[in-house]
Structures are given as structure tokens and as C-alpha cells.
Amino acid sequence: MAYSQIRLKILPSVRCLFDKLVQVKVEGLAPHKPVELRSKLVDDRGMIFKASALYKADETGQVDVCRAPSLGGSYTGVEPMGLFWSMAPETPHGKLLKKNVFSPILVEMEALCRETGEVLASETNERIYMTEGMRRIPVQEGRIRGVLFIPPGKGPFPGIVDLYTFGGRLTEPRASLLANKGYVVLALAYLGYQDLPKRPKMLDLEYFEEAVTYLRRHPEVKGPGIGIISISHSGGLALSMSSFLSGISATVCINGCIGNTVIPLHYKDIVLPPLSPVITNVKITDSGLIDIRDALPDPSLDENRASLFPIERASCQFLFAVSEDDHNWNSALFAEQAAATLRKHGKESFKVVTYPKAGHFLEVPHMPHCPSGFHGAVGSNVVFGGEPKAHSEAQLDLWDRVQEFFKSHLDNKSTC
């Protein structure tokens, strides 16, 4: 048949926000024709991510990825966004990097003839981070380093501080996508960005206090309190901010630790030392990767209490998101301990959401899963855990919960 009749369509549009679902369809095939669909993207580091899936056209010569099952490849079954979340890096241990949120992630999609490998049709999905009219403002106020995202429309809007991982320097994708939902979001760097030291001897909580004050006083931000979203190492920073600082109404802690880690944390005359890893608890996997899941000691034991964040002092609402297959550390235990501490002090101002087969890096929806990669504190590749499909479903669920959480607690609600 004439290949010119075959079309690969991305609906409702080839251009969409990164967190949005699209419908991938191939039309004009011979009835019941086997076809292979492939997806590919190149991140801002030049790393290539790919996925593929085998389909069979229906009697009308169409493949609708939202309805038809994949018969093999990177995933099987009906998975509307399978060609996105199942992407894996060509280079092992790669994590998708997006530095410039002004440009879209381009996902190239192809339909290929199973018998000959010939490309029958292709299309590119442009997955953007910023809606038209959004402002991205670099921030260098006093010591503060970061980027402020202000949504289009008439403000003021609720404000959120976005803190990323230990090795993240400044990461803008989540902050920009959250700002699209009607928030002023400050993506705040705290290590190795511009003139911030890469390995400081101590982290100063007063730096984060300055950032909270800056955001609360911004004319586009409405009060009374702000939100924090955090992941991994920054989860601890979010808990310490919530414990010691005023003006925080809602804190999201994704796979964080309830004790201080890696670098001593200083606030006024208080110093919280980092937990000392138990090196004998570090394992090596069959593939030669380091597994540090059980390396941290129990923060609740008496000998470690100096490292524990006093979250019982916090007046904000908490959302703890936990991946049960997190191999960065035992985040499920830490969330249980946080909940027990709050309950013990008569506080029910928290929710714990658990994802059984998800790994450490719970990102925005449709982000490729990162089961292993370089760990900034360890200095080598480690296991991060998770199964791609379960991890993808967790990311989708959590993104909805995060939006609902901030909507509930940042609209003219009381603050600490």
C-alpha cells in the first residue's frame, strides 16, 4: 500500500505541557498489519532515551495506543503513555536532564514496518514547561540563588519553594510545571550553583529563612503562608524549615529522611550533625552497583537524636510521599517515624502516601524512570529502585495529590 496514506498522529496537539497525556494514533495501515512504534528524545546533556512497542492494526487499519495493547517491546498491555515513561537511556545509569525550560523536550515518534524496518510515518511531540505569559526571573537577592516562576494572569498567587536533590544544583522542570497550576514558585538552589559552594562545611538554615521571607514579601505572592516541595536530601531541609521557621503552611516531603544527612545544619545557636552511615550495611548488587538503602542508622535511637528534626514544633500540614522500593534509604521507615512523632504530640496534620514498587526519584508525570545513577554524596553509581510501570503510576498519582494538597492548604489558610 502507499505509505503516503499512513499518518502518525499526536492528539489533541503535537505541542503540550510536559505533564499532559497525549493520544498516539497510526492511521492508514493495512488491516491487522503488525507495526512497531518507537520513541526517542535527546536531553540537554545529549543523552539519548528510547522506547519501542509492537502493535497490530485493527480491522480499519488503525492503531490507537490509548486502546490497543502493546504485544512486546519496552512494555506490554494497554499503556496510553507507555512510549514516554518506558524510555530508557542508551547509556546505563542515566537520568533525564532538563536545564533550559524555555525549550521543549522533543519526543520523536516513528511507526515502522515490522517485516522490513522501513519508516512508515513519523511525528514529533513538543513537550513544553512554560505556558505563554509565564515569567521566569533569575533570583540573586542577598545570598539567595534561584529562579522565580510567575504564572500568567492576575495575581497575587500562593507561593511555593521548590527544593531539589543533593546533586541537583538548580532544577527547574517541576517548579515551572507547578507554576502553570497557578502558583508563584521559587526554584531554590543550595549547593554548587553560581557562587554557592559545592561542598560547604555547613548548611545555614538562615539562608532558607531568607528565601521564605523573600517569597512571602513578593508582591505577586499572597499569604498568609507558603508551601514547600522537596525530594530526597532536600526533604530533610523542608522538615527543618517547617520545624524552625515561621510562615510555612504546607510541606511536601518526597522520600526524605527525618534526620539530618551528609552536611551539618546550623540555625542560630543550634547545630544538627549529620547521621553517620553504617558502612557495613552497604551492599553490592549482582550487577556491581552500590546499594545504600540500609546505610543510615535509625534516627530515632538515643545516640542519633541530635540529628533528628524537631517536627513536633511545626504548625504546617505535611504530605509525606513514600516509595517502598526506595534504595537511596528507608524512606518508608522515616515517614512512619515522622507520623508517630506528630501523633505523639497530638498532631494529625499530616498524610502519608505509599507507593509499593516505586523507586527513589518520584518526578513529574511521564518522566522516564531512573533505577540507578550517580549519587552526589556517595560519588558513584547506586541503585535507586523501582519498577518502571509502577513508578510511572506513582508519579501520576502523586502529581495530582500535590496539587490537591497545595490547593487545600495554601488558599487563605492559617499558618504557623
Q: Work out the number of β strands.
A: 25
Number of helices: 6
Taking pLDDT < 50 over at least 5 consecutive residues as the criterion, the unreliable ranges are: none
Query: N-to-C terminal Cα separation, in Å?
Result: 68 Å
Strand order of the largest sheet: 11-12-14-13-16-17-22-23
**Overall pLDDT level:** 95
Structural class: alpha/beta
Overview of the molecule:
With 416 residues, the protein is α/β, with parallel strands linked by helices. 17% of the residues lie in helices and 32% in strands. The chain has six helices and 25 strands. The protein has helices at residues 82-85, 173-179, 205-217, 233-244, 331-344, 388-409; strands at 7-11, 15-17, 23-27, 34-42, 48-56, 63-64, 72-73, 88-89, 105-113, 119-128, 135-141, 144-150, 157-162, 184-188, 203-204, 221-231, 248-254, 265-267, 270-272, 283-284, 290-291, 317-323, 350-355, 372-375, 380-383. It has an eight-stranded mixed sheet with strand order 11-12-14-13-16-17-22-23, sandwiched between helices. Strands 2, 4, 5, 7, 8, 9 and 10 form a seven-stranded mixed sheet that branches. A three-stranded antiparallel sheet has the order 1-3-6, with no helix packed on it. A hairpin with a 5-residue loop joins β9 and β10. The longest helix has 22 residues, at 388-409. It is globular. The model has no long low-confidence stretch (mean pLDDT 95).
